[in-house]
Amino acid sequence: MLKSLLVVILFLAVFSNAARVPPKEGDITTACEICELGVRFIIEVAQKNSSITYVTEELQHLCYIIPRGLQGACQEVISQYTPDLIRLIITSDNPEEVCSNQLDICSSSSSSDSDNVENVGDDATTCRICTFILNDAIAIMKAGGSRAEHLMGALNSDCSRYMPDPANTITCQYIVNTSMKQLLAYNKKGLDTVAACGQCLYC
């Protein structure tokens, strides 16, 4: 059921993107290709702002391209399952891996492909975790959760909720508990999330 709902979100992402940049004839021929295009679209959205609220709102706009009678249900599905989709993407920006290994929509081309999943210690993965949780912190503060104890508690909870792997949860919570104040200070000085995480050597 979850897999089917996530695929619906990916299909909507593809068709919304296609409305802006029509694909060449023959570009989208299989569910696998649609999945990969959808993941690329969502990664593009998340690179602008990886907070859960922002990504969810952007995906909910996709619901307006379907019949009016289905729009409410579409928005509910996206609200409920976007966190699961983010969990799949947060540790890998490789659409082929997400669609093959995580959603099992594409058949793996070889067994060696599944051995190339990024390790938690990889700089790119740590960078994505850092930018994700920093964007989350910024969104919480904009929503009025600026008290230190509330913010840190919410961020540690989100690390547990949105990271698919226990090792990633630990990495995320380490960043929150040792570096978040400094990250927010860099961001307040005008650095974007990637630059702020770079100053703390996570990117």
From TrEMBL:
SUPFAM superfamilies hit by this protein: Saposin
One CC-aspect GO term: lysosome
Species for this entry: Polysphondylium violaceum
Protein keywords: Disulfide bond, Glycoprotein, Signal
Chain ranges of the Saposin B-type domain: 28-110, 123-203
Protein origin, superkingdom: Eukaryota
PROSITE patterns xrefs: SAP_B
Pfam families: SapB_2
InterPro entries in the record: SapB_2 (IPR008138), Saposin (IPR008373), Saposin-like (IPR011001), SaposinB_dom (IPR008139), Sphingo_Act-Surfact_Prot (IPR051428)
Signal peptide: 1-18
GO terms under biological process: sphingolipid metabolic process
Protein name, per record: Saposin B-type domain-containing protein
